[in-house]
């Protein structure tokens, strides 16, 4: 499919994660979007024999989230020996440590929140181009504090980082689904409706087995009480590195708002005072675990 076809394709509903992984059983009746740029068939028809790196512990979290090259594996494990990117652009309080997350999984999650852009990845910018120019109200990204660095730190210069190029080929940014595999599930995925639905289904099977040997539940029995109105959403301001908040979702399972930024970074804020009263009525123990970002 040409990019001009995507230009006229409008997003009317959230993406179907099962369609992207090739497991949606509903077809045209699905409540999620089956966008052509999320189709698994793109993998078989890709033009280049390439997959995004899916190896853990090859980069720090900040470089992963920005989809940039990272030389953290050539440095010590502590944050006092940061990668070159964090050294020059991480800011005064940067904590640079190796991450278990992969480029593949990060790129997938960024892709899935960019429906307004046709599910393509952000265009590559030189590291130096991310610094605000003269007149910008936001503070420019600065070097890490020297006193926080290991003695004799060595790494690439800013010029070398610019010359090093993109971590991803341009064709991956333009059509990421063709070069990605479904990501490993993380703690955040376990609060998504699809995971909760599957968890409820498994629990019902377990309960049905127990009931057949002792008693049967009444037909009117329910394990879910009506929820009260969720707390108001306070939209966070624009973030220097991650842009505007493009979507906000409230999850009763963990009692908090989830905010997705233009860059794909996800944060959570607040906990509902109703959580303790309603969480026992839900299936599973959905403990709040901050998302990476």
TrEMBL record:
GO MF term list: zinc ion binding
Keyword field: Metal-binding, Zinc, Zinc-finger
Zinc finger (C3H1-type): 10-38
C3H1-type domain sequence ranges: 10-38
Listed name of the protein: C3H1-type domain-containing protein
Species, as recorded: Extremus antarcticus
